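A quick aside before the break. I want you to see a complete sequence-to-structure record at least once, exactly as it would be stored in a machine-readable document. Don't worry about memorizing anything.
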Amino acid sequence: MGNSFVTYAATTGYRPLTTAEYETAYANLTGTPTSNFAISATTTGLGAATANSLRIDTGTTDVTMSGTGVLAITSGAIMQANVSGTSNLSGRIDGYSGITTGAANEYIVYVTNTGTLTVDSPFTTTTAAFTKSGAGTLILSSATGSTFTGAVTINQGVLQISAVNQIGTGTSLVMNGGTFKYGASFDLTSGGRVITLGVTDAPGIAYADYQTAGGTFDTNGNNVVFGNAVGGGGNGGLTKTGSGDITLNAANTYTGDTTILQGSLTYGINNALSSVALFLMQPRPH
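That is the input. The structure line, written in tokens, reads:
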């Protein structure tokens, strides 16, 4: 788990796909979209293609996958993995006019360990949602922005953008752990986007009685503003890290702790912070 997708059969249950079950010839990615494609070397000049899933193996070298036309990943599953070596380097997808998924599916991008995956092509299935998982870093850098309208969820690792339209045109960002990293200065709450920190309900449990991970915001040297409320009524906390400042200009609705690890947090109105604990944690002097 973490370096391969899984499959299910009634007789065996869930198991990882074997190496032999991955298609490695890009030219075969046509017709019925059942192939799980794996790439482990930089390949450019590719055309449009269809696959069930995509795995980029950066275990021994950086890998770029560059093409034109539409790259259709029907399950929506994209993984940067460390299969063939001890390092976990950088992967990149660029050149495609759009990355699509099945109409009833969401995009799920998993980046393992300390790896970094940069996707410079837009995600263009309008109805899809988008989930970032895995401990690594995902950088979305499309100059035109993505056009999906579903919720964006960060479960683990880092998601970095430099323009707000790179995470689609929807109005929901859910942070269940992990870090949102700024590549430039912008208002993440613009366009009516609601940022939910943690969960708002759980079966049989009063969510206000416990806290979940919430989200970390890394300003990365930028000064940014939240013009609208942050929290979405979630029970997670807000953690600020990275040099630069976040200014909170609305009464926020999360119920977890507020933690400042680096930089500064400015509030422009009353009730900008959660009413729970505020922690100021700066590195010790050497």
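Two observations worth writing down. The chain has no helices and 26 strands. The chain has a mean pLDDT of 90. We'll return to this after the break.
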